[in-house]
Amino acid sequence: MSAKIAIENPPALGKPVGAYSHIARVKAGEFVFIAGQVATDAAGAIVGGGDFEAQCGQAFANIGAALAAVGAGFPDIVQFTTYLVHSQDIAKFAAFRAREFPRLFAKGAYPPNTLLIVDRLVNEAFLIEIQAVAAL
Description:
Blueprint: E1 4-8, E2 23-27, E3 31-37, H1 52-69, E4 77-84, H2 90-104, E5 113-117, E6 128-135
Parallel strand pairs: 4-5
Antiparallel strand pairs: 1-2, 3-6, 4-6
């Protein structure tokens, strides 16, 4: 059974201020919880030290690999939680999503995303961490 996912933006909440939606309604047989992904390759080496764009790309690539491992894809994601170390990277993050999300979510239904600015991540070299929930 594949999930039935409805992405919604009720007028009472106003237009989202970025590449996300306010609500994801889900009827699913199974949920997949993907731990926060950071900029490491398959060997555990840090990718893009000091380069936010490279780290963002690697974190999303890791989410893609996790999804593929369970037979899923980006359209199955129903929620993101994103952690940034620097508030100055918010615009870079928004630009990355505006550029990449039309490819990852071809139907234009972007899942909800909570964005948090934190003091640091598990390793000081990491600039971003992205957690995801998917429905199958």
